[in-house]
UniProtKB/TrEMBL annotation:
SUPFAM superfamilies listed in its UniProt record: Metallo-dependent hydrolases
Cited InterPro entries: ACMSD, Amidohydro-rel, Metal_Hydrolase
Superkingdom: Bacteria
Keywords (A to Z) from UniProt: Lyase
Protein's name according to its UniProt entry: Amidohydrolase-related domain-containing protein
GO cellular component, one term: cytoplasm
Protein species of origin: Murinocardiopsis flavida
Length: 365
């Protein structure tokens, strides 16, 4: 089993200071962190979670923040569920996308990547790293992808779904070009609202956290449509788009609409050679958490089956967040389980073939 959404964090953003150039170190040390504020700088969050973003039981017994203690993560996740791999996406690092200063944002992304590769990557061969980039600085993002994208522990690039414009826009093409060159997917993880980024819904900012969380899937829809319409995969065929934590039930309806409108209006985008749904089936992957639960469970799988969803879904737990999905209790059709829990992610991230269980158990972590 492969978990495609695992968050690893820090107790204080001060861990980045040794990795920053002097001028940007002062930004963080003197401008952001004084007064006991050790969290990562990001745009102000307008929606406060009434219970907190983390599972309370993920606080390590040794102290510190959730997902900062590798041994406790093994106990609660990697070993408990016998994971072959966990795709790490960081925590607050992704929110560099909210910052107005693109040079500072890229400097923080570089520092974050160096810290993760120094401190987390050596711990366990099961950990695979997502490198953070600042999409508001696409040339800087491209340089960062080329700088560390060849590291053997790196599996993808990560940005937030909160952005200044949809990710198919030619503004972002340097980022896609570098990802294709390095044979890396780009994952858009839900979040990054605030700061310089656009409103998360088409009608403006919602009022309540639960309302907002339910509607943030709009950002995934917008990025998907944009990437398909702009022909990103015709231009850069060696990359992929991964939508993380954006939900899945909306995917068939959006692709049906895109196919219908493209068929009627295809002269707008003559660079496309196939239906949007055909590009999506080959080049887009979607993680399962949060997995919608209709009253008739079969309804979800019937709709997803129409677009070839068995080949597109990848399991994610979202550890250690409040809406964690337990792989032992999350239900999939029997004929989908191997692909969703393992095969799709293993192919996307070009991971070694799974070992027989008895061999893996004898080898240890």
């Amino acid at each position: 089993m492969i978990d495609c959404d695992v968050h690893n964090g820090w107790d204080s953003a001060r861990v980045l200071l040794p990795y920053l150039d002097r001028s940007f170190r002062d930004y963080l040390d003197r401008g952001e962190l004084p007064g006991g504020r050790d969290s990562f700088p990001h745009g102000h969050r307008a929606w406060l979670h009434p219970e907190g973003y983390m599972r309370y039981d993920t606080l390590p017994p040794s102290g510190g923040a959730p997902a900062t203690d590798y041994a406790y993560m093994c106990e609660q996740l990697l070993d408990r569920y016998d994971l072959d791999y966990a795709i790490l996406l960081g925590e607050e690092g992704m929110e560099v996308s909210t910052l107005a200063n693109p040079y500072y944002a890229s400097a923080l992304a570089r520092a974050h990547n160096d810290w993760v590769l120094d401190t987390w990557a050596p711990l366990d061969d099961r950990l695979r790293i997502s490198i953070t980039v600042a999409p508001q600085d696409p040339e800087g993002a491209a340089a960062e992808i080329r700088r560390v994208g060849g590291h053997p522990s790196v599996s993808q690039v990560v940005v937030t779904s909160g952005s200044q414009r949809p990710y198919g826009d030619p503004f972002f093409h340097p980022m896609w070009e570098a990802a294709s060159e390095m044979r890396l997917p780009i994952a858009a993880h839900l979040g990054g609202q605030g700061g310089v980024n656009a409103n998360p819904t088409g009608t403006g900012p919602p009022t309540f956290y639960w309302e907002t969380h339910a509607m943030l899937c709009e950002t995934g829809m917008g990025h998907l449509a944009s990437v398909l319409a702009h022909g990103v995969f015709e231009r850069y065929p060696h990359t992929r788009l991964v939508l993380v934590e954006c939900g899945v039930a909306w995917l068939p309806a959006v692709l049906w609409r895109l196919d219908a409108d493209y068929t009627a209006l295809r002269k707008e985008t003559p660079w496309l050679k196939r239906l949007p749904s055909e590009y999506a089936h080959e080049f887009v992957r979607v993680t399962t958490q949060p997995l919608e639960r209709p009253r008739n469970p079969d309804a979800l799988w019937t709709a997803l089956d129409d677009i070839g969803g068995r080949d597109m879904l990848m399991f994610a737990s979202d550890y250690p967040h409040w809406d964690f999905d337990d792989p032992f209790t999350t239900r999939f059709p029997a004929e989908w389980r191997d692909a969703v829990l393992d095969g799709n992610a293993r192919a996307l991230y070009r991971l070694p073939a799974a070992r027989p269980r008895e061999e893996a158990a004898g080898a240890g972590a």
